[in-house]
Amino acid sequence: MMRTSGKLVHMLYRAITYAVTPLIYCHIQWRRFRGLEHPHRWPERFGYPSSSRLHGRPLLWFHAVSLGEGMATLPILLHCAQCLPNITILMTTTTTSAFYVIKDRLPSSVIYQFAPIDAPVAVDTFLMHWNPIAVILMENELWPNLIMAASERGIPLALLNARMSEKSFQLWSSPIASSLISLLLSKFSLILPTSTQQAIRFQLLGAPPFIVNFSGDLKYEVGHLDALEQIPEKTRDLQSQLSLRKVWMAASTHEDEEQVMFCVHKELMKLYPQLLTIIVPRYPEQGRHIAQAVLKEGMTAKLRSQSANICSSTNFYIVDTLGELRDLYRLTPIAVIGGSFLRGLCGHNVSEAAAAGCAVLTGPYIGHFSEMVRKMKQASHLSIQQVELYLE
């Protein structure tokens, strides 16, 4: 009965997404003009490839929505590329930020494309061209048209680093959505959740117990992978500029969290007058706004994008560039992880900073990263500290 209801809900979803495809096209164009889509490769979002497929060789498809998920995919993708040289690997992401960073970390043998939108024509066009032998999705990419179309073609599906926020769990648990999610999860051959709690959520939503296995959080492997890499030359230049300064970093900050960092900086300056605070905003385009806010506070700032050198009077260094966060962690002894200090946020990956040897602090709102924080505290109570926010 549940599966029958799920099929009816999917048929309705498929009909709606088919009907609104022209509107999605207009939305993609609007995003392109705003710089949120690739200026030339946007047709890939509708399933039209910009690369050819090597016929006669099986193809394995990895998909991650954004930069964090994409980076978590790299260790297993690189392992597969090394162990399976006769298989072509396709990597897709959705955001341009992921594209510009990850493309330089992939072997030349890996094909990199933008993922298709979850509209019937786009998904069918994509699958017809690439014809993968398996689809490996990351974290919470549960797109109905994609999953059902792959299943109908007999393509095995896996969900790695599977997670679901409390909000998403409540949404999928609603009467109508529960039948659809139960149907979708039944199409997977393997689900690897990030924690026992996540495993329980997926089983409550209808995932068959025998396909749910636990392998740990792949984002730990990202930190390990980055710690083994050499620091790029442009980062070493910054390292030399920081050598005579007391430095700490606020990473992946969201809008309004910068005010928190300004207050902390002012307090710390009472003890360390030459203190330098590095801010790495979650969205680089916020860099100029942060620099302007610094000036209004009567302090000085330099922008990474302007290649300006840090001088003795510089109070803040704003990293408004992409793909450097993991290297920057190795330049500072203390890292405060943003996205965690204001209600409604849900934190970011803390293992990258820990792997670089930073003393890690985070705010109270850490969402699904709470399991990661708990395990780090369990391993060493000094490895990470959660702090509450008290502003007068």
What's the short version?
This protein has helices at residues 2-19, 21-33, 67-83, 96-102, 120-130, 144-152, 166-172, 175-186, 196-204, 219-227, 233-242, 257-269, 287-296, 325-328, 351-355, 370-379, and strands spanning 59-63, 88-93, 111-114, 134-138, 157-162, 190-193, 247-253, 276-281, 301-303, 316-318, 334-337, 359-362, 384-386.
Give the SSE layout.
Layout: H1 2-19, H2 21-33, E1 59-63, H3 67-83, E2 88-93, H4 96-102, E3 111-114, H5 120-130, E4 134-138, H6 144-152, E5 157-162, H7 166-172, H8 175-186, E6 190-193, H9 196-204, H10 219-227, H11 233-242, E7 247-253, H12 257-269, E8 276-281, H13 287-296, E9 301-303, E10 316-318, H14 325-328, E11 334-337, H15 351-355, E12 359-362, H16 370-379, E13 384-386
Parallel strand pairs: 1-2, 1-4, 2-3, 4-5, 5-6, 7-8, 7-11, 8-10, 9-10, 11-12, 12-13
Helix pairs in contact: 1-8, 3-4, 3-10, 5-6
* Poorly predicted runs of 5 or more residues: none
Largest sheet: 7 strands, parallel
Q: What would the average pLDDT be, to the nearest integer?
A: 89
SS elements, strand count? 13
Topology order in helix (H) and strand (E) letters:
HHEHEHEHEHEHHEHHHEHEHEEHEHEHE
Side-by-side strand order of the widest sheet: 9-10-8-7-11-12-13
Based on CA inertia axes, which overall geometry fits?
globular
Q: Give Rg in angstroms.
A: 22 Å
Strand content: 15-25%
User: Structural class, from helix and strand content?
Assistant: alpha/beta
Helix content: 40-55%
Number of helices: 16
